[in-house]
Amino acid sequence: MMQKSPVVTISAEEQMYRPNSHFTPKKGWMNDPNGMFYLNSTYHLFFQHTPFQSVPDFSKMHWGHAISKDLIKWQELTPAIAYDEKGAIFSGSAVVDKDNTSGFGDGKNIPVVAIFTYHDMKKEKAGEIDAQSQAIAYSLDNGKTWTKYSNNPVLKNPGIKDFRDPKVFWDAKRKQWVMGVAAQDRQHFYASKNLKDWVFLSEFGKDVGGHGGVWECPDLFPIKVEGTNEEKWVLIVNINPGGPNGGSAAQYFVGDFDGKTFKMDTLFTKQLQKEKVAWLDMGRDNYASVSFDNVPDNKRVIIGWMSNWDYAQEVPTNQWRGSTTIARELKLVKKENNYSLISAPVSELENYTAKSFTKKKITAREKITLSEANKIDLTKAVVNLNLKDLEAETYTFVLSNKEGETLSFGINNAENYLFVDRSKSGKNNFSDKFSMPITKANLDQTFLEGTFKIILDKTSIEIFFNNGEKVMTEIFFNSSPFTQLDLVSKGELNVKKLKINQLNIN
To answer: What are the contacts of 153-159 at 24+ separation with CB within 8 A?
Structure first.
C-alpha cells in the first residue's frame, strides 16, 4: 500500500507576511546584521538572533547565520555563536585574516575572526556601568563553527555604559587593524596588530551629526569619489532614537582617516552646518546598516535590519520577527561641492527576473494605471519609472488591494519632499508609533524629471529616487496582497519609460 505524502500546511501568517526576496530567519527574533564577510565564493550574514522566541531575550542573544552565493538568495544555517557565562553575544563584525596576524590559523585554512560585544546581564541588573566589553572568536571552516578566544574580553569596558558594536577593518596603509566602537553618542577608535591587543586611538562625534539617541553599529571605510581617483573615508553611525522620521536610522560622515583620527572633510562640514545630519535612508525601516568584509573588486556592499525599535517587537508576525533590507552597493558622489553617499540594489537582483512589462511614453491626465491585477505579481517586483515634464505638483503612487487598503508614496514637487504614507496600508494598531504622520525625505530643489526604482515585497517597499540619491525603506502589513499600482496627480502625467520586473526567488 502506497503511503500518502504528508500534507504541508503553510500558515496564513507565512503566506501573507514571509518576504519573497528578503532574508528572514525560519523562526525566532532577528535584529542587527553582524559579522558579514565574503570568502571562497560565499557571502556570510550573521545577525542578532533569539532562535527560540519571536521577541528578543537580550540575556540569551546569539549570532544567527545565513549564507549566499549572490547576496539575494539566502540559506539559513544553525546559529553560529551562542551566549555563555560571560554574557550575551551582541552586535559586531568579522574579518578575513589572510595573513594570520591573529595566529589562529592552522597553516591550511584562513582564519576568520569575529569581534563582538559581550553583554553581561547580571552586571546590568546590578546597576554596574561596565556590562559591555569586546571579545573575539575564530573559525577555520569558513564560518561554520567558532572557537571563542580563551583570554576574552580583548577590550575591557573603560567606564562607559553603552560601549558596543565593534566594526573592524584592515588598514593596509598603516598595516594595522582598526576597530570602531560605539561609545554612548561618540565613536571610539582602537588599533591592533593581532586582533587581541588593542590600544586607544581617538574619539569622534562631539557636537556633530545627530545626537537624539545612542550611537550604535558604526562602520568606517575608504571609498573613491565616483568618476575620480580621489579617495575619501565614510563613517556610518546608526542612531536610536533620533531618526529623521522617528526612532531608528543611520547617519553618515565624509572625511579622512590618517590611521589614528577620523576628521570630517571641510566641504562636508559646511554641508552639515546646513543639513545638520546626513541620512543614509530617510525611511523608518533601515537600521544597523553595515558593510561586508573582503568583497571582490573593493565594492562596498551593505545590508540593514528592516525594522525600527519604535515597534519592532510588536509587528504582527509570531513565528519570526525581523528581516533584512535588500543588499545595496554604496557609491560616493560629489556634486557642486556636496558629497552624497548613494545606494542602489546590487546588480545580482536582475538575475532573478521571471518576466517583464515595459511601456514607453505614457501620457494622461490625473491618473495612470501602471500595473493591473494579475498582470505582474506586486509582492515580488521591481518597478523602474522615469517621470518627465514635472510641474510644481504632487505625484502620488498608490498601491491597492481588494479590501481598499492603500500604500501611497511619491514626490511633492511643490514643497520639495518625497513621502510614504502607510496609514491606510492594513494592520497598524499594534503600535501608535507605526503609522505616524507621513514619512518625508526633504529635497533641495524642484525637479523637471525624476527616476524611481521601487522594490516591492509582501510587506515592504524600498524606494530609490534618482539613482539612489534619496532612499526610503518602509514595512507594512496589509490584509491581502497589493495587486494594483496607479500614479495620480492633479495635472498632466508624462511617463518617459516604465519597466516592471517580476522576480522569482525561491
So the answer is: 153/86, 153/118, 154/115, 154/195, 154/196, 154/197, 154/198, 155/179, 155/181, 155/190, 155/198, 156/130, 157/129, 157/130, 157/131, 157/132, 157/133, 158/200, 159/129, 159/130
Looking at 191-329, list the stretches that DSSP marks H as alpha helix, in order from N- to C-terminal side.
266-275
Question: Is 99 annotated in the active site?
Answer: no
Amino acid 355 reads K
What's residue 10's pLDDT?
63
Residues 6+ apart with CB under 8 A from 115: 92, 93, 94, 95, 134, 135, 136, 154, 166, 168, 179, 195
Q: pTM of the predicted model, to two decimals? A: 0.96
- E strands, 353-438, are 353-371, 380-387, 394-400, 406-412, 417-421
Q: Other CB atoms closer than 10 Å to residue 37's CB: what's the count?
A: 22
Grid coordinates belonging to 329: 552597493
DSSP H or E stretch at residue 499: strand 484-503
d(CA 345, CA 350): 9
Q: What does DSSP assign to residue 336?
A: T
Point out which residues pair with 78 in neighbouring strands: none
Which residue, 175, 172, 253, 173, is CA-closest to 220? Answer: 253
Q: What is the pLDDT of residue 398?
A: 98
For residue 419, what are the contacts with CB-CB under 8 A and spacing of at least 6? 408, 409, 410, 411, 412, 438, 439, 440, 441
- The conformation of residue 3, written as its DSSP 8-state character, comes to P
Q: Is residue 206 within a helix (H) or strand (E), and if so which, with residue range?
A: none
Radius of gyration of the chain (CA): 23
Q: Which domains does the chain have, with CATH numbers?
A: 24-345 (2.115.10.20), 351-503 (2.60.120.560)
Check 32, 185, 219, 377 and give the catalytic one: 32
Q: Where are the beta strands (DSSP E) in 53-198?
A: 62-68, 75-81, 88-96, 112-119, 132-139, 147-148, 163-171, 176-183, 186-192
Is the predicted pLDDT of residue 1 greater than 50, yes or no? no
If we measure between CA atoms, which residue out of 383, 325, 342 comes closest to residue 468? 342
Give Cα separations from 165 to 91, 114, 115, 214, 469 (angstroms): 5, 11, 9, 12, 27
pLDDT tens string 75-114: 999 999 999 999 999 999 999 999 999 999 999 999 999 9
Instruction: Name the grid cell of 89.
Output: 553575544
Burial label for 227, CB within 10 Å (0-12, 13-18, 19+), is exposed
Spell out the alpha helix ranges (H) of 306-397. none
Give phi and psi for 412, each to the nearest 5: -95, 100
Cα distances from 90 to residues 34, 112, 161, 291, in angstroms, run 9, 18, 14, 17
Residue 112 and residue 413: Cα distance in Å, rounded? Answer: 49
**CA–CA dist 232, 340 (Å, integer):** 12
